[in-house]
Amino acid sequence: MAAPPPLILVVTGPTGVGKSQVAAALARLADIEIVSADSGQLYRYLNIGTAKPSLEDRAAVPYHGIDLVLPTERYSAGRYGAEARGWIEDISARGRMPVVVGGTGFYLHALFEGLFEEPELDPERRLKLAAVLAACDRATLERWALRLDAGFKGGGTQRAARVIEVALLTGQRLSALQLSAPAVGSGYDPWYAVLTLPRPVLAERIAARTQRMLESGLVDEVQRVLAAGVPNDAPGLRTLGYGEVISMLEGRLQAADLAEAINAATRQYAKRQETWFRHQLRGPVEQFDASAEPEALANEVLGRYRAAAI
Fold it and tell me: Which of 41, 87, 171, 230 qualifies as a cystine partner to 64, CB 3.0-4.6 A?
């Protein structure tokens, strides 16, 4: 009988719940390396608004999946799944323990369940379409994605744009293609440690984090990136917080309203994440009260994971 696939610890939960702090505490308890599953942290130069681990944390434990591409580059869930599988294999081969940390649901899906090989799109037609889609806001993109593909389940502007691209440039629905094509999984089984908080408490944490970001220079960070020639609609700048800062810099949002605009967008995103985690995670799922101190929480997560992995 073949041995069961290795069980990989995944620390996930909504944005702002405290995943990074628990990951840092885990690094003090075990010989781990961290595989980020955060679609914002893979962009270079976008540090404050993506809440990247501190330089101190990154010096204490190796991180994979951070600072991979420029803000102008598109990075797909399929690419993430393939690269993350390589990181996990490498970490395991060196006798260390890989821990996946992050809340981007499609990345977790791509890593553990796999994605099919998406169809090639005509580069010239795709470029013309991209110019049109870049002028659309999130609500418009999601509305058109749903009209073109009834199987569209949400996932943000990049996911909606991809659904529209495939529908218009191939004449086929992305959801139907996914169902009909084989997916390539990771060869690993996830063990999900989902961090949770009551919604009012999570909202307080989100507001406190936004305030720290602004005090740490989020606006200056955005100005530097724009001054370096990155267009304001670049994929990286669609990350939470950056669009709101750009709206303020362009005069579409009052400076006094910036913090609450970021908070509102972040709360909405956290709510979508919670819904996704409830319905889409496949595998053992254990919930943990994130109101505990990170050290105590890390001890509990590690103990329950090790008991499951025996």
Answer: 87
- Give the helix ranges, DSSP H, for the chain: 19-27, 55-60, 77-93, 105-112, 123-134, 138-148, 157-170, 174-180, 199-216, 218-227, 242-249, 258-280, 294-309
**What is the span of the domain harbouring residue 111?**
7-115+183-309
Of 149, 165, 180, which residue constitutes the final position of a domain? 180
134-191 pLDDT, tens digit per residue, is 889 888 999 999 999 998 877 678 788 889 999 999 888 988 876 765 555 557 899 9
Q: How far apart are the first and last CA of the chain?
A: 17
Contacts of 83-91 with CB under 8 Å at 24 or more apart are 84/35, 84/37, 84/110, 84/111, 84/186, 85/111, 85/186, 85/187, 85/188, 87/33, 87/35, 88/8, 88/35, 88/186, 88/188, 91/33, 91/35, 91/64
**Residue bearing tokens 């955005």:** 222
268 with 161, same domain?
no
